[in-house]
Write a structure and sequence with these properties.
3 domains; 4-stranded antiparallel sheet; 17 helices; 19 strands
């Protein structure tokens, strides 16, 4: 009875941790701005745990004080037992203590500590990341590794893309990576993380309640090796584990199973993955900054003072990037004060970004786009009015009928996979009123320490974020047909908080600025 009551707080805690998959998903890792509140939440949890420790210490100190008093009396009695017990007052006090006091101590020991703190964790749990959030975070880190060709050991040590950071992953981090990638059937990727977990366990020891046994990790590593049809290596791992636990029944059974598979030639029916057998694709090369420099002598930099009358007085610094599609970069377009104001406007209303799906005819959350967005009408504030005026000045286009400004913040490994901005659906409600997206204007509101480039794999162009700059390109050809050369992607952010703002300009009102020249 005593042990069950003593375990009550722990049982409640476990129930809390298993709870809450019913709550709405907040998609924490898809925006750096969205993850800021997690640090405040963690601070509350740490303070709550400190309160729990305070209650335990208070009870412990009370017990220690009483032990000292009781031991002093007991030692005095046993030093002269007959004399002590011959006094009726001592005898009465002893009998009373044994009958009454120890009953109270039993109740005191049974009384659980920290129930209010457990309830507080349950309350805060509603705002904590879910299993889905952890899975998305694992996918994001795996995306960074594969896109940039990083090694697991380097990531775990805080060496990201040849730059060392004062941060590292612990065994619980790498083990979670391996477990979840295994569940996703990403066996080659899982093997690297599980092996790294074993390496880290040789260097560090975990303490309760977060410890994980070395044999458990070794067993998981053996399982992934079996999935990769590397039975001999799996057997070696199990034999190493048995040197520490020679009588472990699970390990002995696994050893027998593997020996049987080797003897009978049994293979798992899993497609063989050729890790590192091919080099990076065009998208990965662009993300890594490996595109060759342009050999087109027509590309140059100049001041643009021609697309609108206003630019005669205040020309933009313009860099011509390409002619098919037509693509330019404008520098120093947005000030630091304006960027701060835009971020302040967007942060409270950031929502998970969606993508239009032609099959369903609606916008949906997809794994190929991980960021959070906020939309603002053109007349939302004096700042949005100014930004739209600059877009008109830069492009020479009429913005009537075009889409609202969209502010985006990318989170852990935030990216947007290869896609086109045009719809190419002439009969769709999306293009019936204002036409297709003739041009994209993308503002970079922050520098990104590593990663986060906008890559055009078909034309081998990459634009890296530069605070205050804008990249603009045409999505449609001169005859109004979609230009497939505009295929582009937002590379995963390695380190940094990537903020962008984009404007999609529709074609219907550009009759006089860029008429459709049918062939």
């Amino acid at each position: 009875m005593r042990s069950s009551k003593w375990l009550l707080p722990l049982m409640l805690m476990l129930l809390v941790l298993l709870h809450h998959q019913v709550k709405s998903e907040e998609s924490h890792c898809t925006s750096v701005a969205g993850m800021v509140k997690l640090l405040d939440l963690e601070a509350q949890l740490i303070d709550n745990l400190a309160d729990y420790a305070g209650e335990l210490e208070e009870k412990l100190e009370n017990v220690k004080r009483n032990i000292a008093k009781m031991r002093l009396e007991n030692d005095r009695a046993r030093s002269s037992t007959e004399e002590y017990l011959s006094n009726p007052l001592n005898s009465f006090s002893l009998i009373r203590r044994m009958n009454r006091d120890w009953m109270m101590w039993q109740l005191y020991m049974d009384d659980p500590v920290g129930l209010s703190q457990v309830e507080k964790v349950q309350e805060l749990r509603e705002h904590m990341p879910t299993n889905t959030d952890v899975e998305e975070a694992v996918t994001a880190l795996d995306r960074i590794q594969s896109t940039y060709g990083l090694k697991v050991a380097h990531i775990a040590q805080g060496l990201l893309n040849e730059k060392q950071y004062n941060v590292s992953l612990n065994v619980l981090d790498t083990y979670a990576m391996g477990q979840i990638l295994f569940d996703q059937s990403r066996y080659w990727a899982a093997a690297g993380w599980l092996y790294q977990s074993i390496v880290l366990m040789e260097l560090n020891t975990l303490t309760a309640p977060l410890e994980v046994s070395k044999s458990e990790v070794q067993m998981a590593y053996a399982e992934v090796l079996l999935k990769m049809n590397q039975q001999a290596d799996a057997l070696k791992v199990v034999n190493i584990a048995l040197t520490d636990k020679p009588h472990d029944i699970k390990l002995l059974m696994k050893k027998s199973e593997i020996e049987t598979m080797i003897r009978t030639g049994t293979k798992n029916n899993v497609p063989k993955v050729q890790q590192g057998a091919v080099g990076p694709n065009a998208y990965q090369m662009g993300c890594r900054g490996q595109f060759p420099p342009s050999a087109d002598g027509r590309l140059h930099c100049r001041y643009n003072s021609t697309t609108s009358p206003f630019l005669i007085l205040a020309p933009f610094k313009m860099e011509l990037v390409g002619l098919d599609p037509y693509m330019v970069i404008y520098h120093d377009v947005v000030s630091a004060e304006e960027i701060k104001e835009l971020q302040g406007m967007a942060t409270p209303g950031l929502k998970r970004a969606t993508v239009f799906q032609a099959s369903s005819g609606r916008n949906e959350v997809v794994k190929t786009r991980t960021s959070k967005v906020a939309w603002f009408p053109d007349s939302y504030s004096p700042l949005t009015v100014r930004l739209n005026a600059r877009v008109a000045d830069m492009t020479g286009f009429n913005l009537y009928g075009s889409e609202m400004l969209q502010l985006m913040n990318y989170g852990l490994g935030g990216h947007y996979d290869k896609h086109y901005d045009f719809f190419n659906q002439t009969n769709s409600n999306l293009t019936a009123m204002s036409g297709d997206r003739i041009a994209t204007v993308l503002f970079y509101l922050t520098d990104v320490e590593q990663g986060g480039a906008t890559v055009f794999p078909n034309i081998q162009k990459a634009v890296f974020p530069q605070r205050g700059s804008v990249v603009m390109w045409y999505n449609l050809k001169d005859d109004g047909q979609p230009n497939t050369q505009t295929l582009h992607a937002a590379c995963p952010v390695i380190v940094g908080s990537k903020w962008v703002c984009n404007k999609w300009i529709r074609e219907r009102d550009q009759l006089f600025s860029r008429p459709c020249l049918k062939k």
